[in-house]
User: What shape does this take?
Amino acid sequence: MRCDEMTALLPALVDGETVGFEAESHVETCLRCQAELARYRRLLRTLSMLRTRYAEPTPGLLGETLAVITEAAEHGARRTLLSGRRLAYAGAIGGSALAAGATAAVLIARSRKRALSLAG
Ligand SMILES: [Zn+2]
Assistant: This one.
C-alpha cells in the first residue's frame, strides 16, 4: 500500500474502524503515515476543545458595550462641532484682517490725494 492511498483511510483509522490488515501494517511500519495520523488526531483534539470553549457573555456586557459606543459617538460629535467653531473663528479673524487692510488702503489713498492737491 502507498502513503497517498493511506491518507484517505486515516479518518476511519482515527475513528477506530477496521481499515484492513494491509493498511494497518503499513501504518505500523511507515513513519510518514504515523506522523500524519498523529497530526490528524491532534487536529481533531484541537477542534473538540474549540467546540467546548464557549465564552458565556456576562450579564452587563451588552449595556456596557452600548454605553461605550454611545460615549465614543458623542465624543466624535463634540470634536466635529469644535473643529467647526474653530473654522468660524478663523474666518472671523481673517475677515477682520481683510477689513483692516482695506481701511488702511483707503486711508493711504486719501492722504496721497490730499498731498497731491496741496502740492498742485
Ligand atoms: Zn505511509
User: Anything to note?
Assistant: The chain has a mean pLDDT of 84.
